[in-house]
Amino acid sequence: MELVKDQPARAFPTTLDALTFRFEDVPRLLRRTVDSALYGYELSRTQWRLLAYVLREEGMTQTELARCLELERASVGQAIDALERKQLLERTKEPGDRRVWRIMPTRKARQLLPELRDTINEIYEQMFRGFSAAEIDKLHSYLDRIMVNFGD
């Protein structure tokens, strides 16, 4: 790759180092901002993500949610337990297979969704302030290419 070869061996940080550092900085800032916004709802980032998946596709199993969230089943189970205690999710048995539980949002979760959605959308607006729709599409495309390069 010419970009890498063009970097002086002793230069530090290189242009690619600086760019890679940014790739690490942005998620950290996003995590901090989302954590702060969700604090008032007594939700963790993982709980929010899990709740968002269940609200979008009701009846997913813990295994399916773990795959979507790229987390261990045990971690997802703990998040589901916490959301059950908050009366935002409930487990329902799969007819015909007592080992399988479907995760369903409660009425309370559905009622909370518009407010949560507004909160998260405000973060997105802050994050992408000054970007055009075309620039966001390009950024998405670039990130997809990077993921393909890593084989994901």
TrEMBL record:
<dbReference type="InterPro" id="IPR036388">
    <property type="entry name" value="WH-like_DNA-bd_sf"/>
</dbReference>
<keyword id="KW-0238">DNA-binding</keyword>
<dbReference type="InterPro" id="IPR011991">
    <property type="entry name" value="ArsR-like_HTH"/>
</dbReference>
<dbReference type="GO" id="GO:0003677">
    <property type="term" value="F:DNA binding"/>
</dbReference>
<dbReference type="Pfam" id="PF12802">
    <property type="entry name" value="MarR_2"/>
</dbReference>
<keyword id="KW-0805">Transcription regulation</keyword>
<protein>
    <submittedName>
        <fullName>MarR family transcriptional regulator</fullName>
    </submittedName>
</protein>
<keyword id="KW-0804">Transcription</keyword>
<dbReference type="GO" id="GO:0003700">
    <property type="term" value="F:DNA-binding transcription factor activity"/>
</dbReference>
<dbReference type="InterPro" id="IPR000835">
    <property type="entry name" value="HTH_MarR-typ"/>
</dbReference>
<feature type="domain" description="HTH marR-type">
    <location>
        <begin position="16"/>
        <end position="148"/>
    </location>
</feature>
<dbReference type="InterPro" id="IPR036390">
    <property type="entry name" value="WH_DNA-bd_sf"/>
</dbReference>
